[in-house]
Amino acid sequence: MTTTAYLLTIDAHDPTGGSGQAADLATWAALGWRGTSITTALTAQNSYGVQGVQAAEVALLRNSLRTLLADGEPAAVKIGMISHAAVAEEVAQFVEARQCPVVWDPQLASADGSEPWAQAHGGGLAMRLAQRADLITANRAEASALLDLPAWEMGPPPAAWINAIRSRWLEAGAPHRAVVVKGGNAWGAHSTDWYITSSTVLPLVSRRLPRSAHGSGSVHASVCAARLAEGWSVLDAAAEAQLRAHAGIDQAIAAGPGRPNTRTDARADSDDLPWLPLPGQSEEAPPDFARLSGQIGFYPVVPDADWVLRLLEWGVCTIQLRIKEIEGAELRMQIREAVQAAREVPGTQLFINDHWREAIEAGAYGVHLGQDDVHTADLPAIHTAGLRLGLSTHTPAEIARAHALRPSYIALGPVFPTTLKAMPYRPLGLERLTQWRQWLSPRYPVVAIGGISLGQMSAVRATGVSGAAVVSAVTQAVNPRLAVREALHIWPACADEAVAQAMV
Ligand SMILES: Cc1ncc(COP(=O)(O)OP(=O)(O)O)c(N)n1
Ligand SMILES: Cc1ncsc1CCOP(=O)(O)O
Ligand SMILES: [Mg+2]
């Protein structure tokens, strides 16, 4: 029997269960991971905060780590509170000898600021932990103390902060390494976490909640460790962690008269989504794109205007024209022809892929854009022209990017392996599709795409998404007419429902 992969938290014992090891283990259980824990310190605490700390005995700590390793290497390590330098030294040696992803969530003081542990990270220990970590998650006070930087409250991180983070914590390592400076303890309408690498500084913005909760940093960091162990990028891990921590604070559990505990298995929805503004875009969300006028259901994506005409005849209501190889006058003519034909069938929602200028010119119902397209498309022009916007997403960070643009629907994919085009993304599968669909509800209709055959459409529909976009299942069907009839039977298009409603 092979050992089940495991995550390791090296953190303090919090008797309330709200933070540290207990919160990490509960978070990992909620994510389907086996968690293990090594204790750096025992604490006396309750909902009012930490009342006392006793550091772990170093020989026992070393023995615990060595004994655990005999069962196998961890898939990722999360380091939390360390109250004494001797413990920090032991932990640094341990992680320096590992190959797996490491998340360091420094804890320098309890929320009331009563227990300063900064001295435990002196003598170069903070630098060693930082330089071994793939991700450092620190709030502003912690980063300020560790880097000896003046406080920073509002707006983007000052240049002195970015320079210090890069030169002391990041530059020695690989470019994928990052620091997330969390914004929970700043103020303003939003709470912004700043994601900083050797080459980028990105804001991950959340709606500020009217309260804080004990252990939100532990939940955040442990989600990051789990997702790094699964091979997600640091930015994707940070985006999902922010979403889950936000939901956990929003649904915090009362633990006494003081602060409530962050819920480790909170169900996140679209109110919890962080958003990742485009470069130069303000943190303020732009106005929403127009809502869809009908349901989506079966959503074929086809390569030319003739296909659109045929689908309209066959009763399909939501269609995408995805022209890849034609340009100039012929492209404009096809888009105009398809848009004109779609306008003549009430209830039709025709999206034009990529070609947003021609779509505006033709007065299309909507456009569908990919992640790269949003950097070059004139989104305000599409909005002003009243077109709906659909956006492709494949990862949590891309979802955060899409949420910054407030589109009319969000597509998630690839759900299954697709042969249509090479994609650098792992298929989501139905479980993750269900999960991400929940994150996007109730704000966004969700379209599933990628490798969906007619045989899988019922299962995709059961995840609660609003529609299934398919290419090959229609365009490469032996009998496309029959395939469309079958698909409309499984998931009726809005035209059918509009007709049905009109007949009632
Ligand atoms: C409904 C839907 N979802 C995703 C896509 C993919 O769009 P994009 O990422 O722009 O890639 P291309 O289709 O342009 O290759 C889509 N077209 N429709
Ligand atoms: C364009 C696109 N974007 C994500 S998956 C995909 C391909 C969908 O094609 P198919 O339905 O044939 O797998
Ligand atoms: Mg595109």
From TrEMBL:
Mg(2+) binds at residues 354, 373. It catalyses: 2-(2-carboxy-4-methylthiazol-5-yl)ethyl phosphate + 4-amino-2-methyl-5-(diphosphooxymethyl)pyrimidine + 2 H(+) = thiamine phosphate + CO2 + diphosphate; 4-methyl-5-(2-phosphooxyethyl)-thiazole + 4-amino-2-methyl-5-(diphosphooxymethyl)pyrimidine + H(+) = thiamine phosphate + diphosphate; 2-[(2R,5Z)-2-carboxy-4-methylthiazol-5(2H)-ylidene]ethyl phosphate + 4-amino-2-methyl-5-(diphosphooxymethyl)pyrimidine + 2 H(+) = thiamine phosphate + CO2 + diphosphate. It comes from the Bacteria. Its cofactor is Mg(2+). Its EC number is 2.5.1.3. Residues 305-474 form the Thiamine phosphate synthase/TenI domain. GO terms for molecular function: ATP binding; hydroxymethylpyrimidine kinase activity; magnesium ion binding; phosphomethylpyrimidine kinase activity; thiamine-phosphate diphosphorylase activity. Signal peptide: none annotated. Residues 14-258 form the Pyridoxamine kinase/Phosphomethylpyrimidine kinase domain. One of its GO terms (biological process) is thiamine biosynthetic process. One of its GO terms (cellular component) is cytosol. Pathway: Cofactor biosynthesis; thiamine diphosphate biosynthesis; thiamine phosphate from 4-amino-2-methyl-5-diphosphomethylpyrimidine and 4-methyl-5-(2-phosphoethyl)-thiazole: step 1/1. Residues 254-280 are annotated as: Disordered. It holds the Pfam family TMP-TENI. 2-[(2R,5Z)-2-carboxy-4-methylthiazol-5(2H)-ylidene]ethyl phosphate binds at residues 451, 471-472. Keywords: ATP-binding, Kinase, Magnesium, Metal-binding, Multifunctional enzyme, Nucleotide-binding, Thiamine biosynthesis, Transferase. Binds 1 Mg(2+) ion per subunit. 4-amino-2-methyl-5-(diphosphooxymethyl)pyrimidine binds at residues 320-324, 353, 392, 421. HAMAP family: TMP_synthase. Condenses 4-methyl-5-(beta-hydroxyethyl)thiazole monophosphate (THZ-P) and 2-methyl-4-amino-5-hydroxymethyl pyrimidine pyrophosphate (HMP-PP) to form thiamine monophosphate (TMP). Belongs to the thiamine-phosphate synthase family. NCBIfam families: PRK03512.1. This is Thiamine-phosphate synthase. It comes from Thiomonas arsenitoxydans (strain DSM 22701 / CIP 110005 / 3As).
